[in-house]
Amino acid sequence: MKTLKSTLMALLVISVFSCSKDDDGPNPDNPDDNGESSYTITVNGTEYSNSWDSEGDSGGQSLFSTYTENSAGNKALSLFLSDEENTVAIEADLTLKNNGQPYQISNSPEGWDEDSEFSSVIILIGDKDYGGVSGTVTIANLKTKNITGEAGTATYDLELEGSFDDLNSEEEGVQVTVTFHIQPNHIE
Q1: How far apart are the C-alpha atoms of 80 and 107, rounded to whole Å?
Q2: 75-133 pLDDT, tens per residue?
Q3: What keywords are assigned to this protein (predicted)?
Q4: Could you tell me if residue 47 is inside a domain?
Q5: 3, 33, 42, 164 - which has most CB atoms within 10 Å?
Q6: Distance of alpha carbon 70 from alpha carbon 53, whole angstroms
Q7: Residue 142 is part of which domain span?
Q8: Interacting residues of 58 by C-beta distance below 8 A, sequence separation 6+
Q9: How much is the mean pLDDT over the chain?
Q10: Does residue 69 sit within a domain?
């Protein structure tokens, strides 16, 4: 698990330096696309949330979202968020079923890859590290762009509800809900 946490932190640092503003603005054809990305995470009733618009001031948030499709046709989404204001970070690796929806959350000891038939979610809040044990994830409005070879970027709405364990203590069965609205102007 220490390796997973180190990998997450390394990817978050990379994402800070890899995100850039582009000229994608709000989509007038989609009334929900107001140019603003947002998230809300609720852990045992305590809510953490933030949003940022397309004007370039991210306020300490970094967001990285990718879409992959390997040669076997397996599709996956990976999401990395770091929010310095709320000391929140999240890593979600979601393998997609044929219907375009992610497999359920699991904490398989073998680790995750795009061939896995489960999704993996880790949430860091302050000094707490939560690992997803079980739960469901729903994706809506998935759009991909900049597809080169097997990978590109993705925008979508995400809803997650699950049971997580605190990886630094004995606390198990922590109830977590997450919603994301990821806009194209925040993804490189």
Answers
A1: 18
A2: 999 999 999 888 999 999 999 999 999 999 998 777 888 788 899 999 999 999 999 99
A3: Signal
A4: yes
A5: 164
A6: 32
A7: 2-18+43-52+77-186
A8: 19, 52, 186
A9: 78
A10: no
